[in-house]
């Protein structure tokens, strides 16, 4: 340690030594509390209140509040009985970070959950919105869910719908459907209770992908198995025809027969055309006596 942190450590150790030597808390308060307060240090004030019985809680609390230090405001509200949770919470609200607003609302009794939740919602962070909705009693689940929906993040919409009680499954599922992503549509339909299986299935069907259609039909309860199977059959039929045309040529001399047939047809057509032209020419130039 160095600088002021080293002084804090030394002050705490010196007071601890006095306590261990049998010096009363009242004597420590009378001799040193005013000086501790004058230092206006949130860590020392927090430590003093926690360790010295009879310390002036309100005076030390004001030091912590005035410091605007999120960590010690959180600790003071959590560990000190009769602390002013709302005042400490106001410091956290002004801090504006998702982490401290989540921790404060989760751990501190008398915290203003709605206000701290709004900070999380306004920040739009998907992870903290999910955690807040899951772990903070009294959280506005639909409002946090809307923040997830607005993010358009497929993974977090899936997680929110799967793990948060009271989530709007249909709305989260629509984000997945609109994305057209095959993997997340498959996962959502397979894992989420209340998912619109047929709607997610249509995304898979419209893709024409045989592997995802097979997975969907095999593993998703309520899937339109016939439609998914038809996609697979159609694709297999096209592939079979392609392979037939590709592979049959050259087998058993069929390619030669086909070529010979085509040649004969071409020659027949050529002769037909030639004769038609010849007949037309002969009629055009024939002597008049022959045409009477």
Describe this structure in words.
- The protein is an all-alpha fold and 292 residues long.
- It is built from 18 helices and no strands.
Strand % is: under 5%
The secondary-structure element order is: HHHHHHHHHHHHHHHHHH
Note the total helix count.
18
- What is the structural class? mainly alpha
Helix content: over 70%
Shape: rod-shaped
Mean pLDDT level: 87
Can you tell me the residue ranges where pLDDT is under 50 for at least 5 consecutive residues?
240-245, 247-254
Main pleated sheet? none
Q: Using only CA atoms, what is the Rg?
A: 41 Å
Q: Give the tally of β-strands.
A: 0
Task: Explain the layout of strands and helices.
Layout: H1 3-20, H2 25-39, H3 42-51, H4 57-67, H5 70-79, H6 85-95, H7 98-107, H8 113-123, H9 126-135, H10 141-151, H11 154-163, H12 169-179, H13 182-191, H14 197-207, H15 210-219, H16 225-248, H17 254-285, H18 288-291
Helix pairs in contact: 3-4, 3-5, 5-6, 5-7, 6-7, 7-8, 7-9, 9-10, 9-11, 11-12, 11-13, 13-14, 13-15, 15-16
Care to give the gist of this entry?
With 292 residues, this protein is mainly alpha-helical. The protein has 18 helices and no strands.
Features:
single chain, mainly alpha
